[in-house]
Specification:
globular, 4% helix, five-stranded mixed β-sheet
Length: 188
């Protein structure tokens, strides 16, 4: 019989498992449909990597009515994923994000290609890792906040106002945070 060493604790993980410090919201855009219909109706869906306080996916995931779950102080990243037709690619980017109330600080575009350092850039072909991000203000009240996101699709600019950010708070712990339980060294 061989002995194996493992560490076993008498404590349990926290009752609430929350998101990390950042949440990603992905806008999947059907480029051909948006250009043909000149609207984002039935041409865009939103998904995220966030969960509710109960551990379920954000409400509206996979639709235009996504309610991204987050906490005060979290960073929200908005990324566009274009699904395009065959042939000449059509560039798609986020042109603007606006909230009815200012819930984010430093809400702006980040990460675009620096042409001076990428002289062989082919517009619409070279991957462009630009995205929008903003940090939820620490003092914002828990609530649901709608926003408008506008996309630049080729030469057209189109927007949609159905997604939202739902801000909640973390309940106070039941015990002091230093109480982690006792560890036992087990030989088995």
């Amino acid at each position: 019989m061989t002995k194996s060493n493992s560490l076993r604790t008498n404590s349990r993980p926290r009752q609430i498992v929350r998101n990390s410090l950042q949440v990603n919201v992905i806008a999947i855009v059907d480029v051909a449909r948006a250009i043909f219909s000149e609207t984002l109706d039935d041409a865009v869906i939103f998904v995220d990597n966030s969960v509710t306080p109960e551990g379920k996916p954000s409400p509206g995931r996979g639709t235009t009515a996504l309610k991204t779950q987050c906490l005060e102080g979290m960073v929200i990243n908005w990324i566009v994923y274009p699904v395009g037709p065959y042939g000449v690619p059509v560039p798609v980017s986020i042109a603007d994000i606006t909230f009815d109330e200012p819930i984010c600080v430093k809400l702006q575009s980040y990460g675009s290609i620096v042409t001076a350092h990428s002289p062989n850039v082919i517009p619409g072909v070279t991957p462009n890792y630009d995205y929008w991000a903003g940090m939820v203000r620490p003092e914002v009240e828990p609530n649901t906040y709608g926003y408008r996101i506008e996309f630049q699709i080729g030469t057209q600019r189109m927007g949609i106002s159905t997604p939202a950010v739902e801000i909640s708070t973390i309940p106070a712990p039941l015990q002091a945070s230093g109480d982690r339980g006792k560890a036992q060294y087990v030989l088995g």
